[in-house]
Write a structure and sequence with these properties.
The protein folds into two domains: about 300 residues, TIM Barrel (Alpha-Beta Barrel), CATH 3.20.20; about 30 residues, no CATH class. Helix content is about 50%, strand content about 15%. The strands form five sheets. It has a seven-stranded parallel beta sheet with strand order 6-16-15-12-11-10-9. Strands 8-7-18-17 form a four-stranded mixed beta sheet. The longest helix is centred in the middle third of the chain and has 22 residues.
Length: about 475
């Protein structure tokens, strides 16, 4: 088994006291038990009613506090996720932090021309190929919503592109339970059976309630399917502060905790112990531009708060990294990417997505993905901690060098120099003269050069021919049925 390392971070960034966490949680229980939520799904309502919830009118459901507590007690605290080959890739939970791209972007900066254009299905494969060659990208999402594929088939076609271009685990979106079921069939074939896939999950499904306080039928269909078959499920609302949620940090967070917990109750009563991930899209509405922001101070603060609530509840969480509200890969991208990625690590956020997002989550750029890969590497090294031992204190070496000596030739220096010095791949460490001699490239140009090198010289491990034929057959069957 490939025991993929996870960083041991010794610093924690916290904003909420125990009393504040408890107040937010109690508030969420009040929303669930007294205000209730809309559940236009008969099977979910019946499940909740059987567990002790009350149903009023057609679809208003209130869940007592003790029922929430019963469901929460069965949520797994850690979730192992495996790659295409069945090797352990992520150990989600606690303060382990993993990073990946996002999904369904309308536009993309073309890898070859650099021009911004509408996304196509080939972009999904290209992004997966790129991420396969970047060592600090732990999982992938589609990054593109293809405009050259019928809408009903776009998620499944994206799944096929991703499976074919990387062995890394995936986080998937789906139109409904129908295409999700085909994804599950493909993953089961790759793993060797449905129970083998349950034991070693290959992909994670994204689910999102409708804020404020609603859970759509198609979302609940997917939730129940994931619970039945052990597909790890993200259930993360995206309430917009000032629009579909209160504008205050605490009000924004308490509504999101309530909406996520409500879905988790349904999920756990369907199949106790099935893997589920909490979270929140902490989007803020800029009242001066009516633009939903990813990278604002208020977004960061709320994001830290919801991450801390996940830690407090001891449930694996869905997080963010590598995003920017800039329109192109510029200095703002560097600032935004570094800020959010470092905050995610220091908060111990588990499954951090949307690397490569620009333009308020509408456009993707491969160069930004490459830059974020470097930022993750840098910060993993920075935050891994300081070993204190007889060897690292080096008192014998200090004594041997003595007063006024140097450590350049010391055996101690030779033993540790390679392991202790982090080496960048695109950040500048050259003198002015050497930088000019190498073409005076800025960070974006170096990122593009690295992107091109990966796309030219890195070959993802292919899917075996017989398995590829089976995947193609399953996708074609679905497409024919929907045509």
């Amino acid at each position: 088994m490939n025991d993929k390392p996870t960083p041991v971070l010794n610093s924690r960034l916290t904003l909420l006291s125990e009393e504040k966490c408890q107040a937010i949680y109690d508030g969420a229980l009040t929303i669930i038990a007294e205000i209730g939520m809309k559940v236009p799904h008969q099977a979910a309502r019946d499940l909740l009613a059987g567990a002790g919830a009350s149903v009023e009118g057609d679809d208003l459901v209130r869940i007592p506090r003790e029922v929430v507590a019963e469901a929460r007690a069965t949520v797994p605290r850690m979730i192992d996720v495996y790659d295409r080959n069945g090797e352990l890739a992520m150990h989600l939970g606690g303060f382990n932090s993993y990073f990946g791209t996002g999904s369904d972007l309308m536009s993309i900066y073309d890898f070859e021309t650099g021009e911004r254009r509408l996304s196509v299905i080939a972009d999904v494969g290209r992004m997966a190929h790129l991420c396969d060659g970047l060592p600090n990208i732990d999982f992938i999402m589609s990054m593109a919503h293809p405009h050259d594929v019928e809408a009903y088939a776009s998620y499944l076609e994206s799944f096929r592109q991703m499976v074919s271009n990387t062995t890394k685990p995936m986080v998937m979106t789906a139109a409904g339970v129908e295409d999700l079921e085909v994804m599950w069939k493909i993953a089961s074939e790759l793993r060797g059976g449905a129970e083998e896939l349950r034991a070693k999950p290959y992909f994670i499904q994204y689910g999102e309630p409708v804020s404020p306080l609603q859970h759509a039928p198609e979302v609940l269909d997917k939730l129940l399917f994931c619970a039945d078959w052990g597909i790890p499920l993200i259930y993360s609302p995206a309430p917009i502060a000032g629009a579909t949620a209160p504008i205050t940090h605490a009000g924004h967070i308490v509504q999101a905790v309530a909406e996520s917990l409500f879905g988790i109750v349904v999920h756990q009563f369907r199949r106790p112990g099935s893997p589920v991930i909490t979270g929140m899209g902490p989007v803020k509405l800029d009242m001066s531009t009516v633009q939903a922001l990813y990278n604002s101070a208020e977004y960061y603060t709320t994001y830290l708060g919801i991450t801390e609530m996940a830690k407090w509840m001891d449930i694996p969480n869905w997080g963010y990294a590598g995003t920017s509200d800039s329109q192109c890969v510029d200095a703002q991208v560097g600032l935004d990417v570094a800020e959010l990625t470092l905050l995610s690590m220091q908060a111990g956020s588990n499954l951090n997505h949307d690397i490569g997002y620009l333009d308020f989550g509408l456009t993707g750029a491969g160069e930004s993905v490459v830059i974020t890969d470097e930022v993750i590497s840098l910060n993993r090294r920075t935050l891994e901690g300081i070993e204190v031992s007889e060897e690292t204190l080096a008192l014998d070496t200090i004594a041997a060098v003595g007063h006024g000596g140097d450590f350049l030739g010391a055996k101690h220096t030779k033993r540790h120099v390679r392991g202790l010095q982090w080496r960048p791949t695109i950040l500048n460490r050259s003198t002015q003269q050497k930088w000019e001699a190498e073409g005076s490239l800025d960070l974006t140009a170096k990122a593009h050069r690295k992107l091109t090198d990966i796309m030219t010289n890195h070959t993802p491990e292919p899917v075996p021919a017989a398995m590829k034929a089976k995947i193609d057959e399953l996708v074609a069957e679905y497409v024919r049925a929907g045509a």
